[in-house]
Structure formats: C-alpha cells, structure tokens
Amino acid sequence: MSTVETITQVITQSLPASLVLRPQPAPVAQNNEADKGDPYRYAHLLPVFPQDEHYPPLTPFDHVDPASRALNHPNPRSFLDNSTSIVQLTPHLGEEVRGVNLATLDSDGRDQLALEVARRGLMIFRDQQEFIDRGPDFYLEWGRHFGRLHIHPTSGHPENYPEVHLVYRDGNATYNFEREDRITSTTWHSDVSYELQPPGLTTFFLLSAPETGGDTAFTSQVAALKRLSPQFVAFLRTLKAIHSGFEQAAYSRSGRRGGVVRREPVQNVHPVIRKHPVTGEEAVYVNRQFTRRIVGLKKEESDAILNLLYDHIDKSVDIQARVKWQPYTVVLWDNRITAHSAIVDFTVGERRHGARITPQAERPIPALEGLNLTA
Ligand SMILES: [Fe+2]
C-alpha cells in the first residue's frame, strides 16, 4: 500500500460513515443506446436544415415578464416546496434542485420559477425525464409561457419545429470548428443578443451527452459589474453598443454549418449596462460573440473598453459556475444577467445533442434612465 493510500485509509476510517466518499457507479448516459448502434431514442429531434425556409424580419412586441407576476406572491418559492435538495452552486449564481418535476408546474409555479431564475441567474433541475420525453409540442407550450418564441436564423431544428434550437455534434464532425483558428473553444456570450428583443429566461437540456466533458460554463454579469469602480461604472452606464448577427449569417452561408439563413441578419444597439425589468439589478451586456462597437467612441477607445470587459469576464472564475450534465438535466438561465460558454473538450466522434427553448423578452432597459438608443 502506498503512503497516499495509507493516509487516505486513516482519514477515511476516522470520518463518520455519512461523510466518506465511496466510488459511485457512473450514471447511464443518455447517448448509450445511440452509440451502441441501437435506434437513437431522440432521432425524431435530430437537426434538419430545410433550404427553403425563410421568415420575414422580427417585429417588436410588448413583453410582460412572467417573473413580475410572482413578485407579490406570499411565498414566491413555494414551487420548490417538494424539493428534496437545493444547493446554491456559488454565492453569485446557480441553484441546483432535485425533487421538483418541471413538467407538472402550473402557471403560478412557472411564474415563480421565472422569478427564481431572475434572482439566481442559473438553475439546474435534475431528473427531468418527463419534461424531456414529453417532446417538442410540450417544449413550445412551456416556452410560450415565458415569452414569444424565437426562431434561430441559422441553427438546425427538429423537423417541423423551427422554434426548437438544437446544438448537435456527432461522429460526422471531424474537427472542433470553435477551435479551428483559436486556442480555445471558450466563447462567452448572451444568446442572439443582436435581436432588438433578446431572450430572457431560457431553457436548455441535453438529449445525448458525451461520456465526460461538454459541460456548460456560466458567469454572472451582475457580479462582473459590481467588481468595477463606481467611476468606471458611471461612465459605462452612458454607453451603448452595436450587436451584430451578420457574422453568424455569413458563417452559415459559407457552408460550414447548415448553410441556412432563414431570416436576414440584423444588428441592434443595446445599452452596455442593462437593468433587469423585474429585479432592477444592473448587468454588463456586452459579449465577444455578438458585440462589435461602442457607439460614438473612436475604434481604439471602443476596442479598449470592450476588451477590458471581455478580459474581466474571461478570467473571473470567482463569479462563474459550471454545469456538469447528468442524464435528464434541465437548465434554465436568464440571458439578461448572465453569459455562458459551451466547453468543447469532449472526444471528436462522441454525440452531444441539446435543445434550447428561447423566449424573447423586452428590449434591453438602460441602467441610465433616458439613454438614447439610436445608433
Ligand atoms: Fe448560447
């Protein structure tokens, strides 16, 4: 027995049985059927890219945030009453719940959920097989409770369900395109922030996962803002930035992914610091993937400020949380106050198949009241 094993044994024997970590059997990954050659259980949700699918530009709409309906609830966390476990992932964001079946939440429960996600930024619900197996008609009904469903301009979707955004990689992927010309796959972003009314509460789950890896990283854009000096924040609150979907469309048109642009790309101006419509919290709202330029500043000035914010977001592990996927996990986040990044670290050839339901929310509210958002 090695010295390390001896020490481990001594420590273990001195601990109460409840605190001793014992090897656990690996969970059965949802991709097992597929990767063993059996019919893939979620084959009906594999992505398609119909080449003749086109939509007109999105039109503005009034968004009533479901979280606002829970604000005056006597117990806005009663939807968690049946939970068997609630773990705060980090002080800044993230709450992991077991024992609550999202599929059976009523309208009031969904409003409460929206408020809890707005407050914690990120929620992880384990053991949600019923939710996932109810299928795409249910996904749409679920999402519509929270806002008008977004149809992604370039991603694959299940046949006849364009509102369900799919992320997908399998054995046919011969390289990690995120790393094709970069040293990392890490790309912090808020989903489709180029839209005039980007998403708020967003739901995502994996139908098939790699044996290990493929986690998703999240960060709190509220906490990121709080780390900055009051003088700098006061300046940032006066700024607005252009967010663009043109590069994403061009990437798709280049044929490297799907080849579809089902709605012509747009760019929109958003405040650099936005205010959450329900909690009133202020958050940084720029991201490397879609933000291009701060309006009114010279290029070097814009680049310097954006890069400072991106670097701050990149390296602040102390305001981040990481979702380790387990079978039948459903994750929800508030795209207005968090950023996230896929982690493309898994073996090329493994299947990773996820579905996102993306309700749009309000046009971002500037933290600085009266900020003019014309370009
Ligand atoms: Fe995303």
Automatic annotation (TrEMBL):
<keyword id="KW-0223">Dioxygenase</keyword>
<keyword id="KW-0408">Iron</keyword>
<dbReference type="GO" id="GO:0046872">
    <property type="term" value="F:metal ion binding"/>
</dbReference>
<keyword id="KW-0560">Oxidoreductase</keyword>
<dbReference type="GO" id="GO:0005737">
    <property type="term" value="C:cytoplasm"/>
</dbReference>
<feature type="domain" description="TauD/TfdA-like">
    <location>
        <begin position="87"/>
        <end position="358"/>
    </location>
</feature>
<dbReference type="InterPro" id="IPR042098">
    <property type="entry name" value="TauD-like_sf"/>
</dbReference>
<dbReference type="InterPro" id="IPR051323">
    <property type="entry name" value="AtsK-like"/>
</dbReference>
<dbReference type="InterPro" id="IPR003819">
    <property type="entry name" value="TauD/TfdA-like"/>
</dbReference>
<protein>
    <recommendedName>
        <fullName>TauD/TfdA-like domain-containing protein</fullName>
    </recommendedName>
</protein>
<dbReference type="Pfam" id="PF02668">
    <property type="entry name" value="TauD"/>
</dbReference>
<comment type="similarity">
    <text>Belongs to the TfdA dioxygenase family.</text>
</comment>
<keyword id="KW-0479">Metal-binding</keyword>
<dbReference type="GO" id="GO:0016706">
    <property type="term" value="F:2-oxoglutarate-dependent dioxygenase activity"/>
</dbReference>
